[in-house]
Design a protein that fits this description.
single chain; mainly alpha; two-stranded antiparallel sheet; 4 helices; 61% helix; elongated
């Protein structure tokens, strides 16, 4: 049972989990860098340039969750390329989820008003 012990250590600012630009370390880890970059996709969802269904949205978020969870449970070390790619997917998925939930709430409000 000991090998399944979850380690909850913060990875922000660990040099091996962060990117560097011109000798300066990013303020967040590679995964969060990808997530923040994914957040930049929000205007595409806001103005209906992109519309994803709920299952695609969940599929975009799931790899980041699984990568982080398997690192914590199995004491596995991921790499920065995998972290930034799954983070980017999760950021885009999060913006899609916000769009889906916002559309649902807006539709419910319009039903009440009618």
């Amino acid at each position: 049972m000991e090998k399944f012990k979850i380690q909850l250590t913060a990875c922000h600012r660990l040099p091996h989990r962060s990117f560097f630009w011109r000798g300066k370390q990013f303020p967040v880890c590679a995964r969060c860098t990808g997530i923040h970059l994914g957040y930049l996709s929000f205007p595409l969802f806001l103005f209906d340039f992109i519309s994803l269904n709920i299952w695609v949205t969940i599929a975009l978020i799931l790899p980041t969750f699984l990568d982080g969870l398997t690192q914590a449970i199995f004491n596995r070390e991921s790499n920065n390329v995998l972290r930034v790619i799954t983070g980017l997917m999760a950021g885009i998925g999060s913006m899609s989820m916000i769009s889906i939930v916002g559309q649902f709430i807006g539709d419910q409000i319009l039903l009440i008003i009618k």
